[in-house]
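To illustrate the input format used throughout this study, we show a single complete record. The first block contains the structure-token representation of the backbone; no residue identities are included at this stage. The design step must infer an amino acid for every position from geometry alone.
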């Protein structure tokens, strides 16, 4: 474990995010709190194995949060993951890493409200001399019965199908331009055997580049509003965000709802990895 003298911890205060974002000073000062759990959300164990925030556990998107068909795992599997992560009903859970908003969205989907996101990047945490470790964390497991799904923040494939060309709902594709055009299936540029590239018909393209400051913290609310088009921010239409596996879609949902107050917004967590691999779904290409 690497540790450095810790500065006086600041509490998450009102303003941007109203406490849902916590700074590195706050987290460093609360790492030893009995009710705190820290979770790194990533797409492989490589970064976590190299180093991670002291005491953090890993949620691997592909092996922990998605099944073999890239669908989000069911309630029972998620309960087992939460239990082995040492999370209880009263835990404060702080997410960081590649897709922290996906972890926060999943916990809120099942009714756990005390969830936060670390408002800086992994690199900033280590560069500032915050506590880190290479040892895998193994918190004491416990039992946790998750609540029922909050369908107000989740959209399934049938809901997306019904939303195509409907005036009261806007489908929002937050992938790259190449993915939206159908030049590639995966964000890495690759194609998927049997998969079709493109976008859901009537979906607006809304890339989410420019959300972060150089230290990995979220930009101000005024700056974040400039990232999104008026068609997304304005009006009373319900929004459904999607990407490839749900990480970027959850990030867009987090910024829109928690940081900008836009509601209602739902996440299609199956996203393109589900939609583009199912025969018969409508796919549009320019």
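Output of the design step:
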């Amino acid at each position: 474990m690497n540790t450095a003298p810790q500065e006086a911890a600041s509490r998450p205060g009102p303003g941007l995010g109203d406490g849902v974002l916590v700074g590195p000073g706050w987290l460093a000062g609360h790492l030893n709190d009995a009710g705190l759990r820290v979770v790194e959300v990533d797409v492989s164990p490589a970064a976590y194995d190299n180093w991670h925030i002291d005491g953090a556990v890993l949620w691997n998107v592909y092996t922990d949060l998605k099944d073999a068909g890239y669908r989000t795992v069911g309630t029972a599997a998620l309960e087992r993951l939460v239990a082995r992560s040492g999370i209880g009903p009263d835990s404060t859970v702080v997410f960081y890493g590649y897709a922290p908003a996906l972890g926060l969205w999943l916990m809120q989907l099942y009714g756990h409200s005390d969830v936060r996101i670390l408002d800086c990047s992994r690199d900033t945490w280590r560069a500032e001399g915050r506590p880190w470790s290479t040892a895998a964390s193994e918190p004491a497991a416990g039992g946790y019965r998750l609540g029922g799904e909050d369908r107000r923040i989740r959209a399934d494939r049938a809901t997306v199908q019904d939303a195509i060309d409907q005036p009261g709902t806007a489908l929002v594709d937050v992938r790259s331009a190449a993915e939206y055009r159908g030049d590639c299936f995966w964000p890495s540029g690759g194609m998927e055997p049997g998969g079709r590239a493109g976008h859901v018909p009537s979906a607006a393209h809304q890339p989410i580049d420019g959300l972060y400051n150089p230290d990995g913290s979220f930009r101000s609310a005024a700056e974040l509003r400039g990232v999104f088009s008026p068609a997304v921010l304005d009006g009373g239409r319900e929004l459904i965000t999607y990407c490839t596996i749900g990480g970027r879609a959850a990030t867009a949902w987090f910024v829109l709802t928690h940081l900008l107050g836009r509601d209602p917004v739902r996440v299609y967590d199956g996203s393109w990895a589900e939609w583009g691999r199912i025969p018969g779904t409508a796919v549009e290409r320019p």
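Structural context for interpreting the output: The first helix runs from residue 24 to 30. The two ends are 52 Å apart (CA to CA).
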